[in-house]
Amino acid sequence: MTREDIKTLILEIIQDIDDEADFDNLDPGKPLRDQLDLDSMDFLDIVMELRKRHQLQIPEADYPHLATLNSCVDYLEPLLKDA
Amino acid sequence: MKIPFLIIGGGLSGLAAAIRFARFNPEVLILEKHHRIGGLNSYFFRNNQLFETGLHAITNYAAAKDRRAPLNRLLRQLKLSRDQFQFHQQIQSEIIFKGCASLSFSNDFAMIEEEIARKFPHCQDGFHRLVAFLHSFDPFTIAPFRSARQFLNRYIPDRLLVDMLLCPLMFYGSSIEEDMDLGQFAIMFRAIFLEGLFRPGGTVKDFLDVLLTHYRALGGSLRTGAEVSTILHTGGRIDGVVLATGETILCDCLLSTIGIEETLSLLGRPPLPQNSPRLGFVETIFQLQPALCPQLPEDRTIIFFNNSATFHYKKPDTAVDFTSGVICLPQNFAGLPPSTRQEIRSTHLASYDAWKELARDRHEYLAEKGKTADHSREVLSAITGDFSRAIVYHDTFTPLTIERYTAKKEGAIYGHPQKIKDGVLGCDNLFLAGTDQGFLGIIGSMLSGVSMVNQHMLARF
Fold first, then answer.
1. What is the mean pLDDT of residues B28-54?
2. Inter-chain touch B23–A48, beta carbons under 8 Å
3. Which of B183, B270, B287, B301 could cross-link to B332 by cystine, CB 3.0-4.6 Å?
4. CATH number 1.10.3470 given to A3-20+31-79
5. Residues B143 and B208 in one domain
């Protein structure tokens, strides 16, 4: 997957959690949590969707890597390089 | 057979846990003892008509835009859309302490604030400080029991107002006498006063059908009429269960929603020490002919009342304590379609032991049930206006009836006085959810099931 694909994947998953999520003004360098009003239960859904779709096991210690859209892409890029 | 995730109990916490798990892994099975799901919130048929049990109103109302509200978090976690239900908000409810005061409240918190400012001006500041404290307080942090009553006394210098605030919260979720745990109080205060009451459109059956259809579409399984007689375990691990039919079902993980003592008993372990009694209730449904009772209030949804000089929330010495209780007028939710049926429902505290004693003689038991309905009707009529002439059908559930149909020990709908807040029972693959985890009400118990799955199940598979 390219970085762009991963970005699309993450946004797709978030859209699935909240179909009213507004990505127009999303700053990829700022926390998703604040911008999209996601809570820890929503983050767990992102992790679970990644596992379901791409068999990725993300340990809890790595959850901070999912904080911003950019950090998600940085973290997932090596894991999804063959996906 | 062997199933990765097994759930005992098809009530709302078990259903929610099952749906949550099935979203990511369909290998989950619910075992329900009764032939029907729903647990405390279920239904029965009489005269070809459906009657709901348990449900008066659902607490924790929230508008769709309030993403962090428990109701909306729950729907997101289960991947259910609000469009699948029609939510009808309460019109207005009331706490009436006869001869003392009454307080109205609605889903607009300003109403009770104004009521308190007007009727208890000396408590207004304290009430505001209490609310400010509750906004900053995290009731989910696990802590030992703290008395809500003592805590309230520090903020509110009037015993009457303390009792009036506690009354609805106790009747809608306290498993202990005369007091509540502070955490439980904070949860219930938010659920009832800050958020508010509503109900789904249609019947509770329609609500349960939506959940079950969703669960089945995700691939989850359910077996009704499946009573568990033993939980199999070796060392600190659960291997599975044996059903009353003798069938063995093995599992990797087990979630029990049937209560702490009920679960310990299936494990062959001794019960917890109990220093206060379980609280039983009687409920009566009166079905009315609307044309015959035009005087019933149309602007009250739930009425919590106390007619005695001091409010007591405790196991009565007699079969039923008629001096306090809850009245539900289920047609008084906003936007419900007009119906040819009307109901009024009552709840009072009751003594399981007294009813058990009466049940030794079937005749006496039935006579007492009849007397209970009559007495309850008189108490209600004094508050709502006389509806005697309009009754077309009525039924009374004693703590024994509730025990038989919900398997809640002693008919104690709010379970064991002691709660296992973290759901941990000392086994690596067994957890507790539902009533005895201490999260009550439909939204609370469903979130309890969801959170146990999130914390303990999802990472395993």
1. 95
2. yes
3. B301
4. no
5. no
- Answer yes or no: do B34 and B75 share one domain: yes
CB contact under 8 A, B67 and A48: no
DSSP assignment of B46-73? ETTEEEE-S-S-BS----TT-TTSHHHH
Q: Do A37 and B459 touch (CB under 8 A)?
A: no
Let me know whether B67 and B213 are in one domain.
Answer: yes
For residue range B269-317, list pLDDT tens digits in order. Answer: 998 887 889 999 999 999 999 888 767 899 999 999 999 999 999 999 9
CA separation for the pair B454, B146 (Å, rounded):
27
Put simply, whether B76 touches A (Cβ < 8 Å) is: yes
Which among A37, A48, A52 has the least Cβ separation from residue B67?
Answer: A37
Long-range residue pairs from B436-439, CB within 8 A, at least 24 positions apart, any chain? B436/B259, B436/B260, B436/B261, B437/B13, B438/B181, B438/B183, B438/B184, B439/B13, B439/B187
Q: What is the pLDDT of residue B290?
A: 82
Q: Is B83 an interface residue toward A (CB < 8 Å)?
A: no
Task: Check CB contact under 8 Å for B76 and A41.
Answer: yes
Q: Which residues of B touch A44 (CB under 8 A)?
A: 454, 458
- CATH code where residue B49 lies: 3.50.50.60
Give the count of beta carbons closer than 10 Å to the beta carbon of residue A16. Answer: 13
Please state the length of chain B: 461
Residue type, position B332, single letter = N
**Domain shared by B257 and B147, yes or no:** no
Instruction: List pLDDT tens digits, range B175-199.
Output: 999 999 999 999 999 999 999 999 9
Query: Are B69 and B118 contained in the same domain?
Result: no
Residue B459 pLDDT: 85
Task: Indicate if B259 and B342 belong to the same structural domain.
Answer: no
β-strand pairing of B28-31 with B2-8: parallel
Expressed as residue numbers, the domain containing B376 is: 280-406
Q: What is the DSSP letter of B296?
A: S
Residues B284 and B399 grouped into a single domain: yes
Which of A39, A48, A51 is facing B73, going by the closest CB pair? A39
Q: Which of B67, B76, B458 sits opposite A48 (nearest CB)?
A: B458
Same-domain status, B212 and B182: no
Q: Which of A17, A48, A52 sits opposite B76 (nearest CB)?
A: A17
What is the rounded end-to-end Cα distance, in angstroms, of chain B? 18
Contacts of A18 in chain B (CB under 8 A): 67, 76
Question: Which residues in chain A touch residue B73, judged by CB atoms under 8 angstroms apart?
Answer: 39, 41
The pLDDT of residue A50: 94
Identify which of B24, B76, B450 has the shortest CB distance to residue A42.
B76
Measured between CA atoms, the residue of chain B closest to residue A44 is B454
Select the residue from A19, A46, A48, A49 to test the B interface by mutation, using most B Cβ atoms within 10 A: A48
Size of interface A-B (CB pairs under 8 A): 24
User: Cβ contacts (< 8 Å) between A41 and chain B: which residues?
Assistant: 73, 76-77, 450, 454
pTM over 0.90: yes
- Last-in-domain residue among B163, B195, B227: B195
Residue reference for tokens 């029991």: B145
Residue where the block lists tokens 């008395």: B147
- Number of domains comprising chain B: 3
